[in-house]
Amino acid sequence: MKTILKTLAFGLAAGSSLVSVAAMAQDYPTQPVTIVVPFSAGGPTDTVTRLVAAAMSEELGQQVVVQNVGGAGGTLGAGQVAAAPNDGYTLLLHHIGMSTAPALYASLPYAPMEDFAPIGLVTEVPMTIVARKDFEPASLEDLIAYIKENGENITYANAGIGAASQLCGMLFMDALDTKMTEVPYQGTGPAMTDLLGGQIDMMCDQTTNTTSQIQAGEIKAYAVTTPSRIAVLPDVPTMAEGGVENFELAIWHGLYAPAGTDPAIIDRLSQALQAALADETVGNSFAELGTYPVPADLATPAALAEKLEGQIGLWAEVIAAAGVSAQ
Ligand code: ASP
Question: What is the pTM of this model?
Fold first, then answer.
């Protein structure tokens, strides 16, 4: 009898908490939502996130706040969100690093496929090989010869192991079979400040961080990593034009919640993301920065889950082939 009563009491308690979870999902969001950017403010991931957050905020009728948690190539911020309450109020906007980190770190504080609930893809951004404006090489061909000759005397900024800038530099150095001196930052926002100040020689970074500085002549651009030239930087050649074959890199971004978040909340967020990406202001701002929002059918949990899984496998092979060992 005691057991039956206990079971009944448990059933009632569980039932009422189920009701309150459902009610929570229906009312969601009732307070500001935070999107963690795992890099410094002012960098490319931050820029993309702030544009999307402002539009999502209108759609959700709640403030969407951006919090920068830079460090360790994005793995600190991602780890923080993996461990956050799965109530829909702490999200992560991360890029390709979500898929490269498992191959680059011997141990990670999270498992990308298990510890997150994907919400949707956001954008794909081309990379640019850039340098301080008085850097000696005049063209991509000159740059390649210069790097081969000067190797480790050249300083190369990145946002730490697991960052897109580190991935691009790693692939570039591998393609040229040489090494430069890597200088890690918490994001490429501060790295850009040093590039502009001439304290660092080179960087490979997203157009969302480099386009306006290239257009203003404040930094030199040697190449874009897309198969064809891009509209906002028509004078910048592709890697293939400079003789670097099979070097194509687009930095995809995704929005995630911690695993176990109510599917109704994930659905609400995915719809808000789709609406944000269809917003004209977001579209125009993205275009000015050399990128574009993904179509609505990719701003979905299924599309992001598929992308992430495929990319984890792909990068594990590429990174192993480049002979880079996990840290
Ligand atoms: N996009 C940069 C990188 O991964 C980081 C940042 O957004 O600051 O290199």
Answer: 0.92
Structural domain contains residue 20:
no
Which residue has the CA at smallest separation from atom 7 of ligand 1?
45
In a domain, 25, yes or no: no
The upper half-sphere exposure of residue 227, i.e. CA atoms within 13 Å in the direction of its Cβ, equals 1
230-242 pLDDT per residue, tens: 999 999 999 999 8
Beta bridge partners of 37: 68
CB-defined site of ligand 1, < 6 Å: 39-40, 43-46, 97, 158-159, 163-165, 187-189, 205-206
Domain that holds residue 147: 126-242
Give 313's contacts (C-beta < 8 A, 6+ positions apart).
none
CA of 208 from ligand 1 middle (Å) equals: 10
The helix/strand/coil state of 143 is helix
In total, how many domains does the chain have? 2
How many angstroms does the Cα of residue 161 sit away from the middle of ligand 1? Answer: 11
Centre of ligand 1 from the C-alpha of residue 204, in Å: 10
Beta strands, E only, the chain? 33-37, 64-68, 90-95, 116-132, 155-158, 181-184, 202-206, 219-224, 250-258, 292-293
What's the pLDDT score for residue 327?
76
Token pair 């040229």: residue = 176
Domain final residue, candidates 222, 242, 262: 242
DSSP-based three-state secondary structure for 35: strand
Domain termination site, one of 242, 272, 293: 242
